[in-house]
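Quick illustration, no need to memorize.
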Amino acid sequence: MTVTDRFLSYVAFDTQSDELTNMTPSTPGQMVFARFLKEQLEKMGLEEISLDDNGYLMATLPSNCGYDAPVVGFIAHLDTAPDMSGKHVNPRIVKNYDGKSILLNEKENIVLSPEEFPEMLNYIGQDLIVTDGTTLLGADDKAGIAEIVTAVAYLQEHPEIKHGKIRIAFNPDEEIGKGAHKFDVERFGAEFAYTMDGGAVGELEYENFNAASAKVTIKGRNVHPGTAKHKMVNSIRVATQFIVMLPRWETPEHTEGYEGFYHLVGIEGSVEETVLTYIIRDHDHERFESRKREIEHLVRKTNIEFPGCASVEIKDQYYNMREKIEPVMHIIEVAEKAMLEAGVEPKVQPIRGGTDGAQLSFKGLPCPNIFAGGENFHGRYEYVSIQSMEKAASVIVNICRLVAEK
């Protein structure tokens, strides 16, 4: 079975996560998929296979090198993003892509165009798996799962490739920031690991945002509009004043690289009460703390004009894994060498987001992120190159060999 065969079978499972259910996994489809994978791993003959009630699936490929080698892990997540439906995914393979626009859906005139997504031109001559324009594809992160399983199968079929003990894990709810919350690092038992959850070929990431959420609540006072003068406090209007006080250019649509931002992700309100939901992001910890203080400052400023109407709840979500990876930079060097041997040029860059690896690194499992090969995650224009998935599987195999050699 090829990496493509596995991927196409995996995207048939509806595994969208949902942050509102307060369950783990947050949706039943993730557990259905985990049970399917468990059976697949059992048929492959892997050992120490476990699936707990929270949807964390782990397994072992035993060492064949005859001596103690570091235990390395590979991790991918079961869920797809809540941003768009992952139900009834209808993938299609575009062979030998010619660099032109791809008609995803004739009925709805949905087109995947290099004019809008110029990185498509990097894939001329390759085979692309695309959607029909009505769902996301699910390469984030079912491509990662397919690559890990394919690499393990390849190692089983090629015992001449010596490797130490390999641990793999597939976890739920990464897309809602909870993938590592119930991950049992001690039971996993790896010295270090890699998440296969990046984008384009060559991506290798060990820096990510420091992240927090901020919920700003504005309380209003509703009075009949005919007699509202000097009485009514319209929380919606107060909320809009708050929104424009934050710097306009420090938003996702105006930032890149190491630049942080404030991102308004939700508004729900009426005259009586309005709630603004923000996410706060910055790679630099001092600037991250400064951004949180700025939100608190603007709440106090709002309360000067409208006494007692504004409050804020800020929660840290994850931190930059760089401080946990720098003491063990050899694991980055191994990944870079594994890529070069697979014919891939490493592209070390910061993640403008977070991965399970960030939280796992702070739980004692250093865990940088490697490309899975997809593009345009979380939406109808998502696609993945078959050749990229094959390269990712080769990188995994090379890492396993190189770790044992060291």
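The first strand starts at residue 47 and ends at 51.
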